[in-house]
Amino acid sequence: MEIISIIGILIALAIVVMGSLKGLNLIILSSVAAFVVAATGGVGLINGYTTYLGGVASSITSMFPIFLGGQLLGCFLEATGLTESIANAIIKKFGTKMIVIAVFLVSWILVFCGINVFVIIFTVYPLACAFFKVGDIPRSLIPACVLGACVSEQVLPGVTTTANLLSTEAFGVPAAAGPVTGVCLSVFLLVANGFYLYRQGEIARKKGEHFTPLPGENFEVDLNKKGLPHPLLILPPIASVLIALNVFKIPGYASLYIGALVSMVMFWKRLGGAKAVIAVLNKAAKSSQSVIATCAIIGFSSIVTAVPGYNLLLSGLEKASGGNPYIFAFVAVAAIAAVTGSATGGVKFVLNSFSQKLLDMGGNPASLCRVICASSLTFDSLPHNSAVVLTLEACNVSHKEGYKHLFVTTVLNTTIATVIAILFSMVGIH
User: Fold this and answer.
1) Nearest one of 424, 297, 319 to 364, comparing CA atoms
2) DSSP state of 22
3) What is the block-wise mean pLDDT of the chain (430 residues), using blocks of 10 residues?
4) What is the pLDDT of residues 217-233, one digit of tens each?
5) 3-state helix, strand, coil in the chain (%, to 5)
6) pLDDT digits (tens, 9 = 90+) for 5-21
7) Contact 72, 257 (CB under 8 A)
8) Rounded CA gap, 383 and 397, in Å?
9) Using N-to-C axis directions, what is the helix angle for 2-21 and 291-304, rounded to 10°?
10) Nearest-5° angle of CA 84, CA 189, CA 105?
């Protein structure tokens, strides 16, 4: 029965992968996959699907507040004009000689401030195009400037990224657990990705590659635009989030709510009063509904853990990792993230399925958090990942033109960073 069950799990995973590549919604795919696992696992279709639905419901309960908090903070900061103000200030500071690095750092700072990656894309893209045109650098580097910056920030300890909040809460440690490892990983990725992107810009110039405007594109960006708030006004809302989370140990979602509230109060007049604030709240609420698709694939883990094939899967992962909890965590998170195209999906799946197992294997909770955060940023960025697809589309760059740079910055370098995290964990560095 275990063999049939494990075959069913593998078929279900293949359905998710192939369906994702075809553009099918994860809600549909995860439901079909759950039925396949239930049918081959001997638990009955109805009982198995009920187990799956229970997993979806519990995931929404734990994750929806985080998604909503992040959207609230990001939408308020975007509506105030702070995202554009910060981007303008950094581009002006670096000028045209360090264009690629300037765009990369703009993206990093906006991610650190809690801005949604898709908001960052649409904020940075016109600025990047304007300056890439001046420097005659091909647009194929723009997606990697954005997502390469995102991954280098998301391994930091003490931040409100979903992976950090989920893993630290699961293992009962502070959000800033594993500070040495987290900071080292972030510095490594910041330097490695920044250097790679800068070098690729120089290589493109030497090869005679050019920036080619598309029909209808106008890149006359006003860096001295009047009426924008001072970029340093970002500090109070972001500081309130970090202090609430790391000093007062307030839950991550509540810390994000506090940051959003501070932003709303600070910029009430700039936002335009009650009607405008209501519009921002509605936008954030609508955007937060994306949690359902993520939780649908996470709920899949609940039916997987309920069938006989799970024990065989567990045994296989343990053998593949050589009994090392950190390698086990990396393999498990990276594999699920690759299948689902979702870093959050990989993290939550593994925490639901293997968190106690990882502790029983001798894993240090703080080290496990850093390894899991880094692992979630590796194979989730394969070509079918939604962030990869949407970023390339938003920047008008094809997979053929831009994915090679994304692969280096979001798959290769993040995998190296995860190996560093594992080595640190094995020698007792947290």
Assistant:
1) 424
2) T
3) 87 82 80 93 92 90 87 87 84 79 89 76 79 85 93 92 92 95 97 96 89 76 82 92 92 91 95 94 88 80 84 80 93 83 82 91 96 94 77 85 94 97 95
4) 766 667 778 888 999 99
5) 80, 0, 20
6) 989 988 988 888 788 66
7) yes
8) 13
9) 160
10) 20
CB 341 within 8 A of CB 386: yes
Q: Could you give the CA distance from residue 121 to residue 128 in angstroms, rounded to a whole number?
A: 10
Rounded CA-CA distance 36/42 in Å is 10
Predicted local confidence at residue 421, as pLDDT: 98
Nearest to 106 by CA among 71, 119, 225: 119
Question: Which pLDDT belongs to residue 221?
Answer: 65
Token pair recorded at residue 204: 């493109």
Are the C-beta atoms of 350 and 325 separated by less than 8 Å? Answer: no
Distance CA 274, CA 278 (A): 6
- Residue 96 structure tokens: 């045209």
Residues 116, 287 contacting (CB under 8 angstroms):
yes
Cβ 118 vs Cβ 381: under 8 Å: no
pLDDT at 330: 96
Please give the Cα distance from 269 to 285 (Å, whole number).
22
- Measured distance CA(374)–CA(417) in Å, rounded: 7
CA distance linking residue 150 with residue 107, whole number of Å: 7
* pLDDT for position 205: 84
| Residue where the block lists tokens 């494990």 | 6
- Which position has the token pair 């187990």? 51
- Cα 315 to Cα 335, 345, 346, 371, 405, distances in angstroms: 15, 21, 19, 20, 36
Closest CA to 405 of 203, 142, 97, 106: 142
Measure the CA angle with vertex 353, ends 352 and 355; round to 5°.
Answer: 75
pLDDT digits (tens, 9 = 90+) for 91-144: 788 876 788 998 899 889 888 877 777 677 777 888 788 878 878 889 999 999
If you ran DSSP here, which 8-state letter would residue 229 be given? P
Looking up tokens 């029965």 gives 1
Write the DSSP string, 336-373: HHHHHT-HHHHHHHHHHHHHHHHHHTT--HHHHHHHHH
User: Which is nearest to 416 in space by CA: 388, 389, 378?
Assistant: 378
